Amino acid sequence: MSRPTIAILGAGSLGEIFARGLIRAGWEPSDIVMAARREERAREAAEHTGVETLLDAALAATGRDVVIVAVKPKDVHTLLDSCGETITSDQLVISLAAGVPLSVFEDAMPSVPVVRAMPNTPAAVDEGMTAYCAGSHADESAMARADEVLRAVGKTMQLSEDLLDAVTAVSGTGPAYIFLLAEAIGEAAVREGLPRDAAEQLVEQTLRGAGILLSESHKSPVELRAQVTSPGGTTAAAMHILEEGGFRALVEDAIRAAAQRSRDMGASAAGTD
Length: 273
Ligand SMILES: NC(=O)c1ccc[n+]([C@@H]2O[C@H](COP(=O)([O-])OP(=O)(O)OC[C@H]3O[C@@H](n4cnc5c(N)ncnc54)[C@H](OP(=O)(O)O)[C@@H]3O)[C@@H](O)[C@H]2O)c1
Description:
13% strand; 53% helix
């Protein structure tokens, strides 16, 4: 199967991440086109990626096998008004817009296969995690095509649409939780007397090492934590403070708030709020 040609509507940060990732995965820049809404942004995006960037989303989408929607959720309706009618049932639309339900796309483009996906920014280093779900016209070959495109920047997982708000809160927003933790540990390290650059290196490699260990050891987080927690030791002292301060409950509340925000954005996009 030859690589599908791709239009990326919305040449913002995620649009650029996908353009670059697709090129690293073997797409020719000429197989991709992006659409921006401002000339300055179009010029920047073309310079950063080497991909032609047009100011006309309908023109960019015309005739492309796959159309990736990478505008902010609030801009989806305007985008669909401008190009929904030019997209045909032999094309595949992949929406990356957080919270926006499949129904918004299917109402605007009846009979067009649509996939709704939730990627995350580690896609920039081919370590993304994207969960996606099928619209009512996305058959097996459309899903295989969606997977081929989304896999270019990391791992993929197919789930039902009702779970995508939870996915948004866990893996879509997830990198920000880790970055906040990195900041907090780094600041504490400096307060303990470590030079800032040493603190940054310690934090970076610790998060990287712990992430790889978690994914490659086939052990649960509980087992891995137990391995570094001797009775009465330093880790036990730290864990006690985190548990006493309500760390778990705080994480749970944060994830619930992110999932609810995704549901609210979806209801607002679908006009059901
Ligand atoms: N960033 C993440 O971590 C992440 C993760 C998962 C999903 N997402 C989803 O990915 C989408 C894009 O996010 P982002 O962070 O890349 O946002 P972004 O940086 O703001 O990029 C969106 C781009 O779309 C452009 N745009 C808006 N309307 C347009 C139109 N009609 N035609 C052409 N271009 C148009 C915007 O133009 P201007 O420059 O003029 O504003 C902007 O450059 C969002 O829906 C978000 O929910 C993001």
